[in-house]
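Q: What structure does this chain adopt?
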Amino acid sequence: MSTKQIGVKPDSKEGDNIFDTYFNLIEKNQLVAASIDRPVYNTLVNSVTIVERNLLDASQRKKTSIKRIKILNDNVNKVLKEWLPILTLLSKNIDFIKALAYNFIGLSLIVNNNQGLDEQDIEKYSEYLSPSVESMELINSGDLAMPNALHYATRSNPYFEIVNNLHHSMGMGDFHVVLQKLVDANFKIFYNLDYLSYKISLNDIQEDTQLEQVRKSLKKYNIVELLESFKLDSQENVHTEWLIMIKTNNNHPDAVKFLNLIYTLSTAIKYIDDDEISVTIDDWGNGSKWAKLRVRFNNLIAQEETKELLDKARKATEAELFDKRIGEADKLRSEADKTAKEAANMPAKEIAEESNLLELEMKKLELFEKRIDIEFKIEDLKSKKIDNLNKLSNMIKDGLLASDSNFQIQINDLLYLKNYGTANEGASMNAIESRAALKSNFGDPGQSL
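A:
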């Protein structure tokens, strides 16, 4: 990443090194911070340093392929660059600095664990550590648009420059309202810190001299086990929300067909679990017609089943799991009948031999049928679930195909499906799920400014 030639052009050779940009921005804010707050900025410097060193170590391991280094490099840089404008705006919010530092510890674990992760896993958990969809919408909105965060971050007083510019356009009060919305939108990173999801304290990374010891201790943790168990343990405290954006480039789409597209998608998702899922219209607009839906999941099972449903709908396939088993039983029965008919025309010795074989085949068939019967009883509920998912996925598919306009569907700011003549599949459902917003069940969305 920094010095080793790995076949992937390092960021430091491309002009703007994202790590140096972070270090410069943090240092400028640390210099003007109150003395009591300066150690907090040091935790952020150290967490970014751990990510950089882990990435460099990964690039120097002989067993790490050039392709994997590129995947790690791309995902790490995507996460860091997406957080940069938010850090620039919230660089004086001490609680946010702590939460972001802790978030980057999780990023360092992805790099540590990369050999045990496939490409989709790296993308999935990187998305989990990225800013929320809502905060990215705020950053990219007309009022807060920051087209060149790297430019701002490298100026002598980036925060003051941005604040002055935004105060002129928004006013002091409105600007602070937007900053609070940014904090609230990223509740996930505050929650991870409060409950120490990465099994390490921020106090452990305040001192530079302890960094190598911390890096060594972090090697024993598995990011997948930590985050998946953390999600299960957190279900009573939090819920997740998805934002679904449906767009058409037709300024005057057929009203029935476009609204039917929204209706079938919303209805199918609701049918998964009406008690645990709510779907509301968050916003809509003109230009090209678009509608934004907000989907709330009160538990992980409802979210997982929705993910499975949308994956089926996107691939437009039907499961035939249980027909296959019935087919196997019929095949054995048919072979046994065939053996019995052939035995009628054989000499006595051969009849005896074939009779024994036939008896053995019949016993195998009886055992197989008993096992099938037990399995069918155990899997009856699964069968009903799959049948339901098939019907709902076909419902979504039919709604998509019935639209006479080109359309694009994004979920959590990632492409789900784009139909401009041909269907183009987007991000994996795992990545889409990981990008979900985390919300408190107790009405306390985040820390105050």
